[in-house]
Amino acid sequence: MSAAVIRPLADAPGLAPMLAAWHHAHWGHFYDPADWSLQAATDELRDHATRCGRPTTLVAFEGDEPAGSVSLVDEDAPEFNGVGDAWLASLFVRPASRGRGIGKALVRECVALAAREGVSRLWLFTPEHVGFYAALGWRDLGAAHLRGHAVHLMDIIPA
Ligand SMILES: CC(C)(COP(=O)(O)OP(=O)(O)OC[C@H]1O[C@@H](n2cnc3c(N)ncnc32)[C@H](O)[C@@H]1OP(=O)(O)O)[C@@H](O)C(=O)NCCC(=O)NCCS
């Protein structure tokens, strides 16, 4: 069980640039730089901060410190738009806070939010964390490629 508290980014919209910097540094190589610059990532999160329903972002706090985030979005990589229409995306826990259950708590909260939003099926893609998501009830749909990188597609029925 994580001691972190998970709140909507809408409660702390000023965090958007910092979260965007984390995300862009970690995942920039999966996207066309013309489509997803640091500015675009920041603008996307500022937009997420305007609402608590999809597309939106949840933030985990350890005390007052942001420790990680996850997003519930309509599309993630454009290459997978035909696969699904609701995605868990951008799960990230800052290195200093890993291994304390925050990642799992963010995934569970995102799936619960999807259920409240009436999402009947939620997808994600992951390059290397199939086991992490499988332990949380996600189904491995098999391998795929994204801009030259091997990933796995996974899904879950939100409940
Ligand atoms: C993946 C990530 C979100 C996990 O966050 P975290 O807060 O450390 O995760 P938790 O503490 O909740 O859970 C860690 C558990 O997952 C397990 N785990 C981590 N990676 C795993 C993997 N690839 N396969 C199987 N289990 C894995 C750990 O062994 C640990 O298990 P335990 O609880 O039984 O000890 C974090 O490492 C991270 O931000 N990584 C960089 C971004 C990233 O890769 N995000 C996922 C994108 S798909």
TrEMBL record:
Designated name of the protein: GNAT family N-acetyltransferase
Keyword Hydrolase: no
Record-annotated membrane-spanning stretches: none
Domain N-acetyltransferase positions: 4-159
Organism of this sequence: Arenimonas caeni
Any one GO molecular function term: acyltransferase activity, transferring groups other than amino-acyl groups
InterPro entries: Acyl_CoA_acyltransferase, Bact_Acetyltransf, GNAT_dom
Keyword Glycoprotein on entry: no
Keyword annotations from UniProtKB, A to Z: Acyltransferase, Transferase
Highest taxon of the lineage: Bacteria
